[in-house]
Amino acid sequence: MQKILGLTRRAIDDYKMIKEGDKIAVGVSGGKDSICLLAVLNAYKKFAPYKFDIIAININLGFEQTKAEEVQALKDFCKQQDIPLIIHDTDIAKIIFEDRKEKSPCSLCSKMRRGALNTVAIQHGCNKIALGHNADDILETMLMCLMNEGRFSTFSPVSFMDRTNMTLIRPFIYIEEKYLAALCKKYNFPIVHNPCPKDKNSNRSETKQLIEQLNNKTLGTKQIMLGAIYNPSRNNLWDTSVPKDYQRENDENRKI
């Protein structure tokens, strides 16, 4: 817990994620990352140099296979931690898989979940939303954008949404998934398993496997790639502007 708390505090300090008086909605999907984030931010509150409040928001997608006992365990955990929990029921699963019959549902599902999360956070007076994206998520997103869209891009540590005046923060950007999995197991945090048929069978899961293969082949590859994200000043990408010397050379060639 101490290592994860330290890396979380470093991310918060580096990017000024939290300020005095913030009310933060922690998006709790039910997975290990978000439940760890909830527990870690609750622990951080006790020694943070400023006062802030947190609430937990779970967007229920409406899958009938969701286990009631797992949801109850989440409720019990939040009660023990003295964290308000809001469970917001939706028909997102029905809309995506029954009404629209989406073959590639992940992008639409993400947008709909985020929209619901923003709405509930605003209703409860929050000015920030904390998401549990970890270092692996950051790297996977970068590679997905590169391979599928031809651009270098990934999650930002802090993002401000003009339309809702809501700020997104990602305090786990320096923490690898394996450490969160170990923390979750050590403290027996409650998990609400995802019954989505696309879980573990998506573009992201394939990208995760690719990164594992690269790292297994050359140990340390993942950390090197993460270093390129954490230190963008090292990147040496082409500039779209044409150098003056190059322009002058082309002008001379046209005269010949």
Compact overview of the structure:
The chain is an alpha/beta fold. It contains ten helices and six strands.
Describe the structure.
By secondary structure, the protein is an alpha/beta fold. The protein contains 10 helices and 6 strands. It has helices spanning 2-14, 32-44, 68-80, 92-99, 106-123, 135-149, 177-187, 203-217, 221-230, 244-255; strands spanning 23-27, 53-60, 85-89, 128-130, 158-161, 166-169. A 6-stranded mixed sheet has the order 3-2-1-4-6-5, with helices on both faces. Strand 5 (158-161) and strand 6 form a beta hairpin. Helix 1 packs across helix 2, helix 2 packs across helix 7 (177-187) and helix 6 crosses helix 8 (203-217). The longest helix is centred in the middle third of the chain and has 18 residues, at 106-123. The radius of gyration is 21 Å and the shape is globular. The relative contact order is 0.15.
Helical/strand content category: alpha/beta
| Cα gyration radius (Å) | 21 Å
Report strand %.
Answer: 5-15%
- Rounded average pLDDT: 89
Strand order of the largest sheet: 3-2-1-4-6-5
- Largest sheet at a glance? 6 strands, mixed
Low-confidence stretches: 252-256
Indicate the multimeric state. Answer: single chain
β-strand number: 6
Supply the key terms.
256 residues, alpha/beta, six-stranded mixed beta sheet, 10 helices, globular, disordered C terminus
